[in-house]
Specification:
The complex is a heterodimer. Chain A is an alpha+beta fold. Chain A has a domain of about 60 residues. Chain A has two helices and three strands, in the order H-E-E-H-E. Chain A has a three-stranded antiparallel beta sheet with strand order 2-1-3, with helices on one face. The model of chain A has no long low-confidence stretch (mean pLDDT about 85). By secondary structure, chain B is an all-alpha fold. Chain B has four domains: about 100 residues, Rna Polymerase Sigma Factor, Chain: A, CATH 1.10.1740; about 120 residues, no CATH class; about 80 residues, no CATH class; about 80 residues, Alpha Horseshoe (Serine Threonine Protein Phosphatase 5, Tetratricopeptide repeat), CATH 1.25.40. Helices cover about 70% and strands about 0% of the residues of chain B. Chain B is built from 19 helices and no strands. In chain B, helix 2 packs across helix 3 and helix 6 crosses helix 8. The longest helix of chain B is centred in the first third of the chain and has 26 residues. Classes of the chains: A alpha+beta, B mainly alpha. The interface between A and B is medium-sized, with 20 and 20 residues.
Chain lengths: ~120, ~400
């Protein structure tokens, strides 16, 4: 069984966990064979909401904040810039009914960047 | 020696935004581009008096700015890591710098829909038009720290979310145009009439707005781009007759029409007609059409008020607004008489949300004056003076009271 663990933080605590701490836990999960993928995100000021209504694309600044709608899934995409990310996001079928929040992934500020499955462990080498 | 200094000054005024826009694209970072551009101009101040002005000074400044930026990045004073994208961007071939208009690329980035609408305008005025944060804050009637934060956030989003520095492709160009035109019109308005206090008309902003619109029009022959261009040309053609040398306002009915730039009015009227004929026009084209009717009238009295009322009706269908209704009421007062005008403006003040809008009370005062209701006129003028922000407007209204 796979589980998606979503991390919520208020602005006050955004930088409370040092990147090294998060990176070390990610490495533990990788070593224990539990990690599928994990990425930290840039702050909400980088969020863009994408919607498609009646075939018309609507792009707005800011995170998605409609309490009626619930998180239904996620796509982790590789795109050359925000324009391509918006284009790809607008093709996600539920964009017609709900909202796709597009947030850029950042890299952990530590040697070797964000640990990932299959990459050599920096701490262990 | 002084000649060189003068030519660097001229170059800064004429080309600094193009140098900046190119550096933004090459470096992908507004602040780094701004610093590097200033370093390039300082280097020119140092070297050119000895070496003379290079054959292509803009290319020299861009290339010097780029080297200064590489130095900054290598020294690591600004960035902890030298990212691949910076290296790749800096290696872009020199030849490509001339392709397309760099300022246009920059304006499309600043007007990206993923930025908040307020941020789009603030960023364009700051980065494309080189207004200071204080000037923009004044134009927005916003506190300076709020405005500064808005710009910082927008830049951070462009950097962190990787909004590209490019003119959108054909599929997206139309949709992206609306915010670009809105921003240009605000730039024009800032130049045409400053928002408060005793400020002279800023010619450079006006010229910049017209230049940007012509540029967009050549790239994207959309009816509304031409509509906006015509609107600005029509207002410009009559600008010098709007005020006295002392900065006092001259109302439309007292302006010296012989001093209007009729060649420009003709050009603008032609552009307006072409835009109207496409059938895909919008609010800018309709406002241009209204301005054209005014500009083509030989006297104030000979204005085709019926045509103007019709154009305002069309405009109101596209954009319901109390301010547009107020302008329509002025035309109604000219065509049907001040009683009808007064009825409309009283409704707008009571129910249209114009209670605090000085021009609504000024219009009311004018209608009362024409109906010989002097006490009411005086009361409304006084109310308008209290609400007005600009000194020239206050002085104009005071003179109207003296004339009663």
């Amino acid at each position: 069984m796979k589980y998606l663990c979503l991390v919520y933080l208020d602005q006050e605590h955004w930088d409370s966990c040092p990147d090294e701490t998060c990176g070390a836990y990610a490495q533990d999960l990788i070593d224990g064979g539990h990690m599928v993928a994990a990425e930290p995100l840039h702050g909400v000021h980088t969020a863009t909401s994408v919607r498609v209504r009646n075939g018309q694309l609507s792009v707005t600044d800011g995170p998605f904040a409609e309490t009626k709608e619930m998180l239904a899934g996620f796509y982790l995409l590789d795109a050359k810039d925000l324009n391509e990310a918006i284009r790809l996001a607008s093709g996600i079928p539920p964009a017609k009914y709900g909202t796709i929040e597009v947030r850029p992934v950042r890299t952990l500020d530590m040697p070797g960047g964000t640990p990932s499955v299959g990459a050599p462990s920096v701490a262990g080498s | 020696m002084n000649d060189v200094k003068q030519s660097i000054d001229d170059l800064y005024r004429a080309e600094s935004r193009r140098v900046f826009a190119t550096l933004v694209r090459l470096l992908g970072d507004f602040d780094l581009a701004e610093d590097s551009m200033h370093e390039a101009f300082s280097a020119a101040m140092e070297k050119w008096p000895q070496t003379g002005v290079p054959e292509n000074p803009v290319a020299w400044l861009i290339s010097t700015g780029r080297f200064k930026a590489i130095d900054t990045i290598r020294r690591g004073t600004r960035f902890q890591t030298l990212t691949e994208s910076h290296d790749a961007a800096i290696d872009i071939d020199h030849e490509h710098e001339a392709v397309g208009d760099e300022v246009l690329r920059l304006i499309f980035t600043c007007c990206h829909p993923a930025l908040a609408p307020d941020a789009q305008i603030a960023l364009t005025l700051r980065e494309v038009c080189d207004l200071t944060t204080e000037e923009i804050a004044r134009a927005f009637l916003t506190p300076v720290p709020t405005l500064a934060q808005r710009i910082v956030r927008a830049k951070a989003k462009i950097r962190d979310a990787q909004i590209p520095f490019e003119v959108p492709d054909e599929n997206e160009l139309g949709a992206r145009l609306r915010s670009v035109l809105r921003v240009i019109y605000l730039v024009y308005n800032e130049g045409y009439s400053a928002s408060s206090g005793e400020t002279a008309v800023r010619r450079d902003l006006v010229q910049e707005a017209i230049r940007l619109t012509r540029l967009v029009a050549s790239l994207l022959p959309d009816a509304e781009v031409f509509g906006l261009l015509a609107l600005m040309l029509l207002q410009e053609a009559r600008r010098t007759t709007r005020t006295t040398h002392d900065g006092d306002l001259i109302p439309l009915d007292e302006q010296d029409r012989s001093r209007w730039n009729m060649a420009q009015v003709e050009e603008a009227s032609l552009i307006t007609q072409q835009a109207l004929r496409t059938g895909r026009f919008g609010v800018y084209t309709l406002q241009a059409a209204i301005a054209a009717v005014h500009a083509e009238a030989k006297t104030y009295e000979e204005t085709d008020w019926e045509e103007i009322i019709g154009l305002y009706d069309a405009l109101l269908q596209m954009e319901p607004s109390s301010v547009i209704q107020l302008n329509r009421a002025v035309a109604v007062a000219m065509y049907h008489g001040p009683e009808q005008g007064l009825e409309l403006v009283d409704d707008l003040i009571k129910e249209g949300g114009l209670m605090d809008y000085h021009l609504a009370h000024a219009a009311r005062a004018d209608f009362c004056r024409r109906l010989d209701r002097k006490d009411e006129a005086r009361a409304s003028y006084l109310f308008a003076i209290k609400l007005a922000h600009q000194e020239p407007e206050k002085r104009f209204l005071s003179r109207q009271i003296e004339k009663l």
